[in-house]
Write a structure and sequence with these properties.
Jelly Rolls; 2 domains; 434 Repressor (Amino-terminal Domain); alpha+beta; four-stranded antiparallel beta sheet; six-stranded antiparallel beta sheet; elongated
Length: 186
């Protein structure tokens, strides 16, 4: 049986980052090379049982953690009342995660901006793509040096390397769905 290496690698990366460890830190504590650890995290290399054991010890977790969702459905349902909320510094809007696991390449968020609130670019220069779809209200979005005024039902698609931010300049609440790929920075 071949292991679901993308999931395992994603879980290792997620746990390492939650513990504020770098690849170099993990390399020192496991005795494994940074290159090998990077390949395992990216799902390029299938780790041996010995390698996984060293990683689990260094991350102070159980080896079972990496296999908990093996065989589970690839479908994820997130009920409205179960959505998690994330906060971005220098942004004043409310942002809900619509669904994501450690191995997804796409993140979907719902952003709600009250009058005068903003959502700023927090990962400038990162590769990827983004798309916004306004559900209700009117949204002013700046991408690079250009500004776009979007109404309910309008959408905009852009390269993530471009600096961007959104603002509600109206007296009504704005709601939009924000799609980001890849998700490595979240």
């Amino acid at each position: 049986m071949r292991l679901p290496i993308e999931r395992i690698g994603g879980k290792i990366r997620s746990l390492r980052k939650k513990q504020a460890q770098t690849l170099e830190d993990l390399s020192r504590s496991t005795g494994l090379s940074k290159g090998l650890l990077s390949q395992v995290e990216r799902g390029i290399s299938q780790p041996s049982l010995e390698t996984l054991w060293k990683i689990t010890k260094a991350l102070d977790t159980s080896i079972v953690h990496f296999f908990e969702d093996v065989g589970h459905s690839e479908v994820q349902v997130v009920r409205k009342e179960e959505r998690s909320q994330i906060m971005f510094s220098d942004s004043t809007g409310t942002c809900f995660v619509l669904g994501q696991t450690d191995h997804t390449r796409l993140r979907m968020l719902e952003v709600i901006l009250a009058p005068g609130e903003t959502m700023r670019d927090h990962f400038p220069g990162r590769e990827g793509e983004q798309c916004l779809v306004v559900k209700e209200g009117e949204l002013l979005i700046q991408i690079g040096e250009e500004e776009f005024n979007l109404q309910a039902g309008d959408s905009i698609f852009f390269d993530s390397t471009l600096a961007h931010g959104a603002r509600n300049n109206t007296n009504e609440t704005v709601s939009y769905v924000w799609s980001v790929s890849p998700t490595k920075v979240f």
